[in-house]
């Protein structure tokens, strides 16, 4: 059996070698198809990964309540122009609504920070310790402040990388004291860099401190700009959101015909929609690339059919000297499979090459999984079997007498 | 042209019992050509003993090609019986017929029918490929067969690099590769000059002398002269079936012909 399989296979190889140009052209169409397929799926996946990464950085099942627009006597206030969102609101929501695991009342604003002769205009965020978990901020050096620090409105702060670069170009800021507006403030930690956000602003250009400190010593305000919550799971987000809306309206004594004086949303949903769009896009591109593969397969079939006609006499000779229909069919099928395997293999290599090129141009990390490469290779072989079957069947069914007479 | 190594030709005594190699009883072949029926063979009965050398003659349309195709198991009779080595071939499947063509019959054609861009050696190996002989044995047997037809030194040549006579000799070597009991030659000298034609007949006579049964289709009377028996077809019937009392000896004829090639 082994002898037989080997013989038929080597006959197929000889025959491919005898028609070198035809073979190369056929393989080429598959190489292009497979390479395009790998590239497109690779780039698409990289795009999805990029969005997913943003989703990760954004937060942990975050619900975002923002002091919001309200029309009072015909004057419409923009976001954060209302003063009705309070720490008590935050506590009430967190205490009464199930499905929430973390909470951070926040205030923010622009502020001048000074270290000796260096000064820098940045954003301050007054937050609770949960904030760092909700937004997934990691500490690079130092530590974060505690609930106790919040209760006692201690003047401590954690610096973003951009602020560190501007205030402490050459030294470790942890333990040093800076001036935030008029308030002296001890630096207790430095954040890991987060990079630019999806919309392009610098997520490292800010300082964080207890919200009590910020409210009492910097802003002098009694209301919040926003509150962050973490839901226990993604599925808990919609229910918790609608309950929070009800509770806040009640607490703010809004009439049913009055609009909300806050905004509540879960930004992850937006990104998830983006992710879905990106995945759909990948799918569509994949389908397009599959069409390229299909065309390659039809190319194989086309060439094989021409080849069967062209080699009618050869088939007649083989049949006359004792080849069975199965022998003939197997040989032609082997030729198709060999071409598609080789095309698949070269296509995978070309795909890796072009993906690397795209990676350089787009600066995206394109990950080609072994599964994708394996799938592409097998897909190519499948194409060979599928599109080689009919021509090889046709070859095997030739009448030897007529085939021998064929000019 | 030395014919060496006789082992490749299966001897008549070994391959068959007392029964004739070929027995054909009332074979008919009818083709349907559109509305009309064409009766290519209208009841042919003949018996050919192992070791015989038969020339089949007849005008085109006489049915001799159809008869050849049936003898070669390329075609099945519409009616009648064909026994090859006592096996009734008419009832066999396509696969079994392929097996018989492979094992028991060697074909030689007018137009040589070698695979192009394939060496003489590989062409000769081809029948053994389909009988699942190992590559090593295929090669040694093919070289043996090529030596038998005097082409040992041309094994690596391609058909395009060989003369017509040499190509036909490769075809004969290929036909002998699986040690068949019957060699069928369809106008084997039709594309060759007269001297080369006699050379081919010389090979046939030597092979026949070693016991190989040969059936040769030709329309050239002087080629038929080299056979031991002459069957003439006409209108789908056997018109004449004569044993030739004193066939020409090809090697003697060659001495009288001027040398052209080599």
Are there runs of chain B of 5+ residues with pLDDT below 50, and where?
A: 11-17
Count of beta strands of chain A? 12
Instruction: Give the termini separation of chain A.
Output: 34 Å
Mass-distribution shape of chain A? elongated
Strand content of chain A: 15-25%
Q: What's the end-to-end separation of chain B, in Å?
A: 11 Å
In total, the number of domains of chain B comes to 1
Order of helices and strands of chain A: HHEEEHEEHEHEHEEEHEHEHHHHH
Number of strands of chain B: 10
**Order of adjacent strands in the largest pleated sheet of chain A:** 4-5-10-7-9-8
- Largest interface, with Cβ-Cβ < 8 Å? A-B, 25 and 33 residues
| Main sheet specs of chain B | 6 strands, mixed
- The CATH topology of chain B is given as Rossmann fold
Instruction: Using the CA coordinates, give the radius of gyration of chain A.
Output: 34 Å
Low-confidence stretches of chain A: none
Number of helices of chain A: 13
Mean pLDDT of chain B: 90
Q: Care to give the gist of this entry?
A:
The complex is a heterodimer of chains A (407) and B (262). By secondary structure, chain A is α+β, with helices and mostly antiparallel strands. Chain A has helices spanning 2-18, 20-58, 87-96, 130-134, 147-151, 161-167, 211-219, 236-251, 267-310, 312-320, 325-362, 370-396, 400-405; strands at 62-67, 70-72, 75-77, 100-115, 118-127, 139-142, 156-159, 177-180, 183-191, 206-210, 226-231, 262-265.
């Amino acid at each position: 059996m082994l002898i037989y399989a080997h013989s038929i296979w080597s006959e197929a190889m000889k025959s491919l070698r005898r028609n070198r140009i035809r073979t190369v052209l056929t393989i080429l169409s598959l190489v292009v198809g497979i390479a395009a397929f790998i590239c497109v799926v690779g780039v698409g996946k990289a795009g999805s990964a990029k969005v997913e990464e943003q989703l990760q950085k954004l937060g942990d099942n975050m619900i975002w309540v923002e002091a919001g627009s309200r029309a009072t006597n015909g004057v419409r206030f923009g976001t954060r122009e209302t003063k009705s969102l309070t720490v008590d609101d935050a506590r009430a929501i967190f205490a009464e609504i199930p499905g929430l695991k973390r909470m951070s009342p926040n205030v923010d604003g622009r502020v001048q920070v000074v270290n000796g002769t260096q000064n820098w205009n940045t954003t301050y965020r007054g937050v609770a310790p949960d904030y760092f978990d909700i937004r997934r901020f990691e500490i690079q050096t130092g530590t974060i402040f505690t609930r106790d620090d919040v209760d006692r409105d201690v003047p401590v702060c954690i610096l973003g990388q951009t602020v560190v670069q501007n205030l402490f170009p050459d030294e470790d800021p942890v333990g040093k004291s800076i001036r935030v507006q008029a308030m002296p403030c001890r630096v207790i930690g430095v954040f890991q860099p987060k990079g630019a956000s999806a919309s392009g602003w610098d997520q490292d250009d800010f300082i964080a401190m207890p919200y009590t400190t910020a409210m009492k010593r910097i802003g002098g305000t009694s209301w919040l700009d926003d509150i962050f919550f973490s839901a226990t799971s993604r599925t808990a987000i919609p229910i918790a959101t609608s309950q929070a809306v009800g509770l806040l309206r009640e607490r703010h004594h809004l009439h049913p015909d009055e609009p909300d004086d806050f905004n509540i949303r879960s930004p992850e949903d937006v990104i998830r929609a983006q992710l879905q769009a990106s995945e759909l896009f990948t799918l569509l591109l994949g389908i397009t690339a599959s069409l390229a593969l299909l065309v390659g397969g039809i190319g194989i079939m086309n060439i094989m059919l021409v080849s069967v006609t062209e080699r009618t006499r050869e088939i007649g000779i083989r049949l006359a000297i004792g080849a069975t229909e199965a022998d003939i069919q197997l040989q032609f099928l082997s030729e198709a499979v060999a071409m598609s395997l080789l095309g698949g293999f070269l296509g995978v290599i070309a795909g890796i090459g072009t993906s690397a090129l795209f990676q350089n141009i787009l600066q995206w990390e394109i990950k080609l999984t072994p599964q994708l490469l394996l799938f592409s290779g097998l897909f190519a072989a499948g194409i060979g079997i599928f599109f080689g079957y009919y021509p090889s069947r046709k070859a095997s069914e030739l009448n030897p007498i007529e085939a021998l007479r064929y000019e | 042209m030395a014919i060496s190594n006789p082992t490749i030709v299966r001897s008549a005594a070994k391959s068959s019992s007392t029964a004739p190699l070929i027995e054909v009883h009332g074979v008919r072949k009818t083709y349907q050509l559109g509305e009309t029926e064409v009766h290519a063979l209208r009841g042919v009965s003949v018996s050919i003993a192992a070791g015989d050398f038969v020339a089949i003659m007849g005008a085109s349309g006489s049915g001799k090609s159809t008869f050849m195709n049936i003898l070669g198991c390329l075609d099945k009779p519409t009616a009648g019986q064909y026994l090859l080595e006592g096996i009734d071939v008419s009832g066999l499947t396509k696969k079994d017929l392929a097996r018989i063509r492979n094992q028991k019959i060697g074909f030689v054609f007018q137009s040589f029918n070698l695979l192009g861009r394939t060496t003489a050696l590989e062409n000769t190996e081809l029948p053994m490929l389909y009988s699942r002989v190992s590559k090593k044995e295929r090669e040694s047997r093919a070289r043996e067969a090529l030596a038998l037809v005097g082409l040992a030194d041309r094994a690596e040549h391609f058909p395009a690099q060989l003369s017509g006579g040499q190509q036909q000799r490769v075809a004969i070597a290929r036909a002998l590769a699986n040690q068949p009991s019957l060699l069928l030659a369809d106008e084997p000298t039709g594309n060759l000059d007269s001297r080369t034609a006699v050379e081919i007949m010389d090979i046939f006579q030597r092979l026949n002398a070693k016991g190989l049964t040969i059936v040769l289709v030709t329309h050239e009377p002087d080629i038929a002269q080299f056979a031991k028996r002459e069957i003439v077809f006409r209108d789908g019937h056997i018109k004449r079936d004569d044993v030739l009392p004193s066939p020409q000896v090809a090697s003697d004829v060659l001495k009288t012909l001027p040398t052209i090639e080599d």
